[in-house]
Amino acid sequence: MTSTATSTAGYQPEQVWLPASEQLLEWDEGFHDLLLGDEVRMTAFRTAIAEAVRPGMTVLDLGTGTGILALWALQAGAKRVYGIDLNASVLQTATERVVAAGYGERFSPIHGVSFDVSLPERVDLVVSEIMGNLADNEGFVAILADVRQRLLADGGLMVPSRVESYLVPVAAEQAHEQVSRGDPVDAGGPVPFAERLRRRGARSPFDLYYDVIIPVCTYLATPRVARLYNFAAPDCIPPAAAAYRVPLAYTACRDGILTGFKGYFVATLSDTVALDISGDDIAGRATSDSWKHCYLPIAEPVPVRRGDRIGLTFSRSCPDEATGVFRQSYQWEGQVISQGTPVARFTQSTAEASQDVLGPVKQRSVLTNETS
Ligand SMILES: C[S@@+](CC[C@H](N)C(=O)[O-])C[C@H]1O[C@@H](n2cnc3c(N)ncnc32)[C@H](O)[C@@H]1O
Question: Is 90 exceeded by the pLDDT of residue 232?
């Protein structure tokens, strides 16, 4: 998710925003309005839910927020929808929405973090929209693995059923320049941004990822799948899947200045609906207002020539089991090889970010106390 404060396309290509996924515990009504105004997101989920829900099904809307997915499931004939959310205020909005639409009797709002929630029955379908722009930067692997194991009936379905994340080397020079200036749109200027970085213990502004629309014309190679999560298979998401180290190899398809990597996801929501956030046509409304792309910058841009090889090792780790669900560290390191000779290396990491950066870290136990 990203932090643009308007639901219309009030943003530009390569404009740099702070990573909203890292602030998910502080999302307010304005942020939920942004989600509700995101046509790409809304159309995909509305269509998929109408396709996946059969009359009489029981449904869990995990992270129900303002209840829009729950409402669509009820309209499609669900006999009961459980809506879980850790945010009491948005859960109240969800209840009001569903009651106003005449479905209050069949909606069970549950306040809490999903790990702490039990249901009176296993459900036929779990719908959720808890993906970040890198797919797993809002902790969805551990959350959905737990829900699938404890709350989904045998043979039950998940929406989304499958999610892939992609990484591609890019020449995003404007975005890089904005990061270098320490001036993300929503950081309050270079001085407050520098203070955020200092509190975070970040080595530089390049040791953070950003939310940026990165045009396809900046690609220096063909995107590669970094992770694939197949929620349709029972053993698809072992707990260890949340931490990984993935080597990815690229061959440059043109000359350009490598400034970093673009990350994005494609989610299969139903048999006929794929939600692909890689689009860059802002004027044509083909971009998602609430997910921009993930930009993983490198500190020193590297000129590359067509045919050069770019090696990237991308890692995710959860520094602390208690906070790891909502906080993680990413590392992106690698090298450029030109005519058989390594010409540059890069190493960036958000490792310190998990401790205290863009908002207070809340342990799950603290969260539970606050929200119960
Ligand atoms: C991106 S919003 C989506 C809200 C709504 N489903 C929609 O589509 O508009 C994700 C919501 O999930 C909630 N959430 C995320 N992880 C959760 C968890 N493990 N347990 C409970 N709520 C969670 C957040 O508080 C937030 O309201």
Answer: no
